[in-house]
Design a protein that fits this description.
Elements lengths: L4 E4 L6 E6 L3 E9 L10 E5 L7 E5 L11 H17 L8 H13 L10 E11 L5 H8 L2 E8 L12 E4 L7 E4 L12 E8 L3 H13 L4 E9 L3 H14 L2 E16 L19 E5 L30 E2 L3 H15 L8 E5 L5 H7 L6 E5 L18 E5 L7 E5 L8 E6 L5 H11 L5 E6 L6
Parallel strand pairs: 6-7, 6-10, 10-11, 11-12, 13-20, 15-16, 15-19, 19-20
Antiparallel strand pairs: 1-2, 2-3, 3-12, 4-5, 7-14, 8-9, 17-18
Helix pairs in contact: 1-2, 1-3, 6-7
Length: 455
């Protein structure tokens, strides 16, 4: 049932073959890797419980399905920003070697990220991250620049605000994307840069370009992605859209190549084991952040909870000029959480699309702190030491109990404590399914709500 690379070609170590449960075989041929990053630092493979696509590139740098040192996603984003500077702006990043070295160190030694200077863009630029996986990746790329604006797409529906554009991600388990920025942020001629973790067909990007171009046309678009696996047919679909709309689409990636795969029928045979006990391992502690000023939006979920969305996430758009205010909020939250740490290995957990802010908080909480997020993505799991995903927990989303969420790769006593971050206040029974599973695994589970009602 291994999902490790079974063989590597002699062609400069560029061809990898993965087998999953001996029923899915994926051949990966890497054709571009300018930074010479070992592929196993960036991704691994797992089976996906989805009839549309039965395999998944599982990122080792996003902090979504696997725990990471919180500096790793920030540095991966910085490397993407450097490639954008070189390939689109034609400017050499004089900090590239420092960022690349720090990224490698964060993977190998879990060292802290270094500070680096931001680059001032000549033309104001709009950066757009894709939900749910690339919300933090997009935000962190944006943070490398001044004179920029960022927002991310969302799968969540709001009652009191209309989506300025809407598009689909056909292969996904949750296909509809909404965008809740004010229309004036798109009704201009500013360059647009999309950020995603992976392109396999690129259909999602073409869908959002078409949706934007119908209302807010411009001459060019750029796509930044960690992995670009489009084959020639999918690349030609980009060229066709360029011709039809009279635009240019430039794709910039850390890795590019080709994939070939074969799937057997009925490949998934999963037996999910949940940790349940009458004697929980740990305790649940709710942390009050009411003393820390925050900036909430006037918007709320269509199944409203006790508080509105947090403004600083970028769901409604954030400008470079707002960065300092956001950083102060993050720093104050981290300072308030530090006294709760008891020493030892700590896990910070984001909730779905809420990734960037808890990731940045985690980066300021000292040594032995790791980050990952819950997800809608249903990955196949099995108890095999050679398979990537060995433990899996499922629970209803606190925001919408009709939607199943997942958390992966936590074993009993792997962590001394966990901090679980929620963007908005929820009823206790909405968060109980997740918290009750965590308390079976981790001695102390601290609940942190970032947006709270004010009296």
């Amino acid at each position: 049932m291994s999902s490790k690379a079974l063989s590597i070609s002699s062609d400069f170590m560029t061809e990898y073959i993965y087998k999953i449960q001996n029923k899915v075989k994926i051949k990966v041929k890497i054709t571009e890797n300018d930074y010479q990053i070992p592929p196993q630092y960036i991704f691994d493979m797992a089976a996906r419980i989805n009839k549309k696509r039965a395999f998944l590139f599982v990122s080792r740098v996003l902090g979504k399905h696997l725990p990471v040192h919180p500096s790793t996603p920030l540095l991966a984003s910085a490397l993407l920003a450097s490639k954008y500077m070189k390939e689109v702006l034609h400017i050499q990043d004089d900090q590239l070697e420092m960022k690349l070295h720090a990224f490698m160190e964060s993977i190998i030694k879990n060292t802290d990220a270094l500070d680096w200077k931001t680059f001032h863009l000549k033309n104001k630029t709009i950066f757009i991250g894709f939900a749910e996986t690339a919300t933090a990746l997009g935000h962190a790329v944006f943070e490398n620049f001044q004179n920029a604006f960022y927002f991310h797409t969302t799968r969540e529906r709001l009652d009191n605000k209309s989506s300025v554009i809407h598009f689909e991600e056909e292969h996904s388990h949750a296909s509809s994307h909404y965008c809740y920025v004010d229309h004036n942020h798109l009704d201009n001629s500013y360059p647009i840069v999309f950020i995603d973790d992976e392109l396999t067909t690129g259909k999602t990007v073409l869908n959002i370009i078409q949706s934007i171009h119908n209302r807010f046309p411009r001459k060019s678009y750029t796509v930044l992605t960690l992995l670009d696996w489009r084959n020639e047919n999918y690349i030609q679909q980009f060229r066709q859209m360029e011709r039809e709309l009279g635009i240019a689409i430039e794709v910039v990636s850390l890795f590019s190549g080709r994939i070939d795969y074969h799937e057997a029928d009925n490949i998934l045979d999963e037996q999910l084991t949940l940790y349940q006990s009458n004697n929980p391992l740990g305790r649940i502690v709710y942390i009050d952040l009411a003393s820390i000023p925050n900036q909430t939006s006037p918007y709320y979920h269509h199944l409203s909870s006790g508080s509105n969305y947090l403004w600083q996430t970028g769901r409604f758009g954030i400008d470079s000029a707002e960065r300092n205010k956001c950083e102060r909020f993050i720093r104050k939250v981290a300072q308030q959480l530090l006294p709760f740490r008891q020493g030892g290995k700590t896990l910070c957990i984001g909730d779905g699309e809420l990734m960037y802010i808890p990731m940045k908080i985690a980066a300021q909480m000292g040594n032995e702190v790791f980050f990952q997020s819950t997800t809608r993505s249903p990955i196949f799991s099995c108890n095999d030491k050679d398979y990537l995903i060995q433990s899996k927990y499922t629970f209803p989303s606190p925001a919408d109990r009709m939607i199943q969420n997942y958390l992966y790769q936590i074993e009993p006593n792997m962590y001394h404590e966990a901090f679980v971050f929620f963007e908005r206040e929820y009823e206790e029974d909405a968060v109980a399914p997740l918290l009750n599973q965590l308390v079976q695994l981790i001695p102390s589970v601290f609940v942190v709500t970032l947006s709270t009602k004010r009296g």
